[in-house]
Amino acid sequence: MLIHLIRHAETIDNVSKIIQGQQDSKLTEKGIIQTKILAKYLAKFDIDKIYSSPQLRAKETALIIASYLQNKDIITLDELKEIHLASWEKRYEHELLVDKDNTGFFVYKNNPGKFTPKCGEDFSMVQARMLKAIDYIIKENKEDKEILVVSHSTAIRTLLLAIENKTFDTIWDYKIYPSSITTLKYHMGKFWIERIGYIPENKEVDYENIIST
């Protein structure tokens, strides 16, 4: 089985450096174009099913992709949501970087292994539900299928850490760009990571045609 993990496209809050977490933000025009480029690339694959986080930015990304894949149905799973960051959500990053204790945003970004939030989720909670989602997807599909999963950057990173048996200290080492593809291969209980944060190059896609649609 091939599982293509897609990070949602660029959002308004991404551009403004506003923390989103489980709050909603719409895609930018650039994000929509990014997704169309990605969708055109994915149309070359034999995608059997699309799963998505129910959050707006993920659903918008999934809907655009689905329109290029014969309008396949989208199955939403709550476990694919982004990390819940409680009172940090919808605040500017620079406002929160001044708090440097172990519950603060500075530690979350610069020393993630020591991050212990007062509320919301820690990385282990996100990782547990992402593993639950992937386990469900594997059980619901045959091993010869190719599956698309639209989620979020931190959520995807926690899953990669679990597969590679790494600690949360290294979570930000993975570069998971908007509208990027991270591909997992699964066979007989084992995972292999085939690529991380891949963005289709313009030369692989009819870019001018996409801009006009």
Describe the structure in your own words:
The protein is globular and about 45 Å long. By secondary structure, the protein is α/β, with parallel strands linked by helices. Helix 2 (29-42) packs across helix 3 and helix 6 crosses helix 7 (153-164). The longest helix has 18 residues, at 123-140. Helix content is 36%, strand content 16%.
Task: Produce a short descriptive summary.
The chain is α/β, with parallel strands linked by helices and 213 residues long. Helices cover 36% and strands 16% of the residues. It has eight helices and six strands.
List the SSEs and their pairings.
Blueprint: E1 2-7, H1 12-16, H2 29-42, E2 49-52, H3 56-68, E3 74-76, H4 93-96, H5 105-110, H6 123-140, E4 146-151, H7 153-164, E5 181-187, E6 190-198, H8 207-211
Helix pairs in contact: 2-3, 6-7
Keyword list:
213 residues; alpha/beta; six-stranded mixed sheet; 36% helix; globular; disordered C terminus
